[in-house]
Specification:
By secondary structure, the chain is an alpha+beta fold. The protein folds into 2 domains: 202 residues, no CATH class; 98 residues, PDZ domain (Pdz3 Domain), CATH 2.30.42. Helices cover 52% and strands 22% of the residues. It contains 10 helices and 9 strands. Helix 1 packs across helix 8, helix 2 packs antiparallel against helix 8 and helix 7 packs antiparallel against helix 8. The longest helix has 31 residues.
């Protein structure tokens, strides 16, 4: 099962990357910049074919894909990428982000036809949205997406109808062992846990974030309107999270957003839980990942699309491009730092899973 999950995860992640790269490919073609290669996966090549001056390749490493434009390292090639006007280069750079945004919109919009997870205070369905590290819930194996149905205490069985009732019960029996009935996918089981006494209002006796979650459906074609509305709301939250994280990094202040940054291992762990919940949750999950990829790529950091856009803005202001050797050096150093960050986050994810 774990092997199948890994394959499905890599395929899903590759689709998001390919959508991004197709944006660069399409706009470059329209702008008249020759595309030397459009690759699915990474070399070595399995097989390839040529059409319209572009080499299309299927590669052995199934992790996304890439687009190789003519003249990416030669500013003297007037037909190549670096020989274009800054406006054209910016359009090509931002195209990948636009495609990720559009793909997320489609996922959410079509997701409304089968159901999009949403909070509903009137719905008797208390669902765990997040398990805090080191919490009672984590130590007892509770997971995101688990539904808390009832408690068995010395006073009898109590059904949980809303998040406030769950908090009241766990606070009442803090420090005592009680049985919790949990639904995970199509399976039901009991957990014997002891809520802890805590004064932290954000953590609570179990250390979980909970909500009453239901699947909201919309009919065609209103699903496209609600898809745009929800995407706008989610984008605002992602933007605020990135802003707070960057402010925290610049001011050396620990933020909640910085603590929740995760790499491929952490995302894979959530993916496995979403698979248990069903296709509706997977649609929404990949829409969130696509949106996060879009906004992260827009950050004006070296090696990201936002960093390349920043260099083009500098070129517009200066009236001439930044010397190529300086730009290459900045992107190379930036790429190395991103790899180190990915390694650091992945180690953190592994430690979290082992704990």
């Amino acid at each position: 099962m774990i092997f199948l999950n890994i394959i499905l995860f890599l395929v899903s992640l590759s689709i998001l990357v390919l959508v991004h790269e197709y944006g660069h490919f399409y706009v470059a073609k329209k702008a008249g910049v020759p595309v030397e290669e459009f690759g699915i996966g990474f070399p070595p090549r399995a097989f390839f074919w040529e059409k319209g001056g572009t080499l299309y390749s299927i590669n052995w490493v199934p992790l996304g894909g890439f687009v190789k434009l003519r003249g990416e390292e030669n500013p003297d090639d007037k037909q190549g990428f670096l020989g274009q006007k800054p406006s054209k280069k910016m359009a090509i750079a931002v195209a990948g982000v636009v495609m990720n945004l559009f793909f997320a919109y489609l996922l959410i919009s079509f997701g409304y036809l089968i159901g999009v997870p949403d909070s509903d205070a009137s719905y008797s369905n208390v669902t765990i949205l997040q398990v805090l590290p080191g919490s009672v819930a984590e130590r007892n194996g509770l997971q995101m997406g688990d539904r808390i149905l009832s408690f068995k205490t010395k006073d009898g069985i109590v059904e949980v109808k809303d998040p406030r009732e769950l908090r009241d019960i766990t606070e009442k029996y803090a420090g005592q062992y009680i049985d919790v009935r949990v639904q995970r996918g199509n399976s039901y089981f009991w957990k014997n846990i002891r809520p802890e006494v805590t004064r932290d209002p954000q953590k609570g006796p179990l250390g979980v974030m909970i909500s009453s979650v239901t699947l909201v459906k919309k009919s065609f074609p209103s699903n496209f309107f609600y898809g745009a509305k929800r995407m706008w709301t989610i984008s605002g939250k992602i933007f605020d999270g990135l802003k707070n994280m960057l402010v925290g990094l610049l001011t050396r202040t620990k933020t909640e957003e910085a603590g929740t940054v995760m790499g491929p291992i952490g995302i894979f762990n959530i993916f496995q839980q979403m698979r248990v919940l069903g296709i509706a949750y997977l649609f929404h999950f990949w829409a969130l990942i696509s949106l996060n990829l879009a906004f992260l790529n827009l950050l004006p950091l070296p090696a990201l699309d936002g960093g390349r856009i920043a260099f083009n803005i500098i070129e517009l202001l200066r009236g001439k491009p930044v010397p190529l050797q300086y730009e290459v050096m900045v992107h190379t150093v930036g790429f190395g730092l991103l790899l180190l960050l990915l390694l650091f986050v992945s180690i953190k994810d592994v430690k979290h899973l082992l704990r």
